[in-house]
TrEMBL record:
Keyword Signal: no
UniProt organism field: Skermanella stibiiresistens SB22
Keywords: Kinase, Phosphoprotein, Transferase
Classification of source organism: Bacteria, Pseudomonadati, Pseudomonadota, Alphaproteobacteria, Rhodospirillales
GO terms for biological process, alphabetical: phosphorelay signal transduction system
A single MF term (Gene Ontology): kinase activity
Name recorded for this polypeptide: Histidine kinase
4-aspartylphosphate: residues bearing it: 55
Signal peptide annotation: none
Length: 137
């Protein structure tokens, strides 16, 4: 899978830096790291990334509302990174995937890869990673 440009929105700096290390190690480019939802919206407007990774519990606008705004305004696919949201709530927010905290490198990258494959080709890898929402769930 080719590398994509993405933003990370996470209010815990160490978690954000961990995500950055994981995704850049896999060949993706991090355009910016936001510590709250309003900063995430600014980064998406400025960089128009291929994907946004959003924590749900952010200052300002919450991550669920930010995900809705990102899809409505810029059509940027979003993955939620959280320990507190169900798949049903994530699906209702219009996100493409959900990565549960605490996450592993393998889980994060598998979910990103599944989402990117589906976006690029309409193909879902089997077995589906636990956090992939995509079609027919």
């Amino acid at each position: 899978m080719r590398g994509v440009r993405l933003i990370i929105a996470e209010d815990q700096l160490l978690v954000a830096l961990d995500m950055e290390t994981i995704v850049t190690g896999a060949g993706h480019e991090v355009c910016g790291i936001a510590s709250n939802a309003d900063e995430a919206l600014t980064l998406v407007a400025e960089y128009r990334p291929d994907l946004a990774l959003l924590d749900v519990e952010l200052g300002g606008t919450d991550g669920l509302e930010a995900a809705r705004l990102i899809m409505d305004r810029w059509q940027v696919p979003t993955l939620l990174v959280t320990g507190h949201v169900t798949m049903e709530i994530a699906r209702d927010a219009g996100v493409i995937g959900l990565v549960r905290k605490p996450f592993t490198e393998r889980t994060l990258l598998a979910t990103i890869d599944a989402c990117l494959a589906w976006l690029a080709h309409g193909v879902v890898q089997e077995p589906r990673p636990p956090g992939f929402i995509g079609p027919d769930i």
